[in-house]
Specification:
By secondary structure, the protein is an alpha/beta fold. The protein is built from 14 helices and eleven strands. Bound molecules: nicotinamide-adenine-dinucleotide and zinc ion.
């Protein structure tokens, strides 16, 4: 069992039998509810109950997927909490990916002015990313995560066993955030990860731990995203635009798949604006193309991408700001780039 102690809570990484079961018995909450979606109910709930021995709880089930991360689903969750007689001394267990964690955490943080919740992330993305940092929320008026709060969970329990049932595309999507963590903070880890060929059979624990430590140290240094936390946006300015654009198409991309494209293009921007050596950019492109395949973007969509980038939350004074890398393993935040830089980076991706 690996333990990460954050200022106000603990992340447990390892078999739930050795973590969550004991913790739940010790805390002895008078009422417990478990939030799942249809997939985590099927694949994760039996594992969770078997490993923790939890028997007395209220089950709250919602529909899976980002389109349900909205205020309507919150109302369903709050209603079920009311009907089950939950109060401020109760506990909500969020068993699922980032959608369940963000939305369940938000519902718990606002229910009767706040009750405890724990995160039990079951996707690779939520295990290395969404479960750390205290950001909770939902999508509103088509703007992702536009309503929400910062609030820490009572604990986080990460069990890599859950990844066994996760579809390969979802696994690979989470892997992009782990690559990002290495590229912005740890050159040696990037070297190690860039030799991984087969994600399906991997022993994930040491990689998850490494990623968590990086995210934790960045979040601790800047909990409310005023400065260095922006480093976590590497790959995301272009990535989000490509993700948003693809959402409207016949071939939507998963978040990490779009971020992989974004990281290739933004590595090139790092070369162009900061002098990141071209061989490093080439190595990043070669590895990401091998893992994610050759996704193509259309030159005719560049104006759409740029329009989407102009709406990015990080922008100031109408300038598009990037979090780039130089050298590999080090992030440089707030780099303003012009449309012609961005187009050159997209061209590089297509080359
Ligand atoms: N709070 C943060 O700091 C933060 C950081 C990154 C992402 N996020 C948010 O996380 C969300 C994305 O998270 P996600 O990728 O985990 O998506 P998700 O929660 O939609 O899960 C992806 C899919 O996998 C299924 N699933 C989950 N665990 C499974 C398992 N073990 N076996 C089989 N199927 C399983 C889910 O039902 C869903 O269909 C986004 O809404 C994003 O905004 C938040
Ligand atoms: Zn991301």
């Amino acid at each position: 069992m690996d333990i990460l102690n954050l200022p106000t809570y603990t992340i447990h990484l390892g078999d739930l039998r050795e973590s969550a079961g004991d913790w739940l018995r010790r805390q002895n909450y008078p009422k417990v509810a478990v939030l799942v979606d249809e997939n985590t109910e099927q694949h994760c709930l039996p594992v969770f109950l078997k490993k923790t021995g939890l028997a007395d709880f209220h089950l709250i089930r919602i529909e899976a997927g980002e389109p349900h991360k909205n205020i309507g689903t919150c109302q369903t969750i709050w209603s079920r909490m009311m009907e089950s007689g939950l109060d401020r001394r109760s506990l909500l267990i969020n068993l699922g990916g980032g959608v369940i964690g963000d939305m369940g955490g938000f519902c718990a943080a606002t229910f009767k002015r706040g009750m405890d919740f724990v995160q039990v992330p079951t996707t690779l993305l939520s295990q290395v990313d969404a479960s750390v940092g205290g950001k909770l929320g939902i999508d509103f008026m088509q703007v992702k995560n536009s309503i929400g709060v910062f609030r820490d969970p009572a604990a986080v329990f990460i069990d890599p066993d859950f990844l066994k049932t996760l579809p390969y595309r979802e696994l690979r999507s989470g892997f992009a955030e782990m690559i990002k963590h290495a590229l912005i903070a740890d050159e040696a880890q990037w070297q190690k990860m860039s030799r991984l060929q087969d994600l399906a059979g991997l022993d994930w624990s040491p990689y998850i731990l490494h990623s968590l430590r990086i995210k934790q140290s960045i979040v601790e240094a800047d909990p409310f995203e005023r400065g260095i936390r922006k480093a976590l946006n590497f790959g995301h300015t272009i990535g989000h635009a490509i993700e948003g654009h693809a959402l409207e198409s016949a071939h939507p991309l998963l978040h990490g798949e779009a971020i992989a494209v974004g990281m290739v293009a933004e590595s090139y921007l790092s070369h162009r604006k900061l002098g990141l050596p071209l061989p490093d950019v080439e190595a990043i492109k070669a590895y990401l193309t091998r893992i994610y395949g050759a996704f193509t973007i259309e030159k005719s969509s560049y104006p759409d991408y740029l329009a989407l980038m102009h709406q990015d939350k990080k922008n100031e004074n109408g300038q598009i700001l990037f979090s780039l890398i130089h050298p590999v393993g080090n992030a440089v935040v707030n780099v303003a780039c012009e449309p012609e830089d961005i187009e050159a980076a997209l061209d590089y991706f297509l080359m």
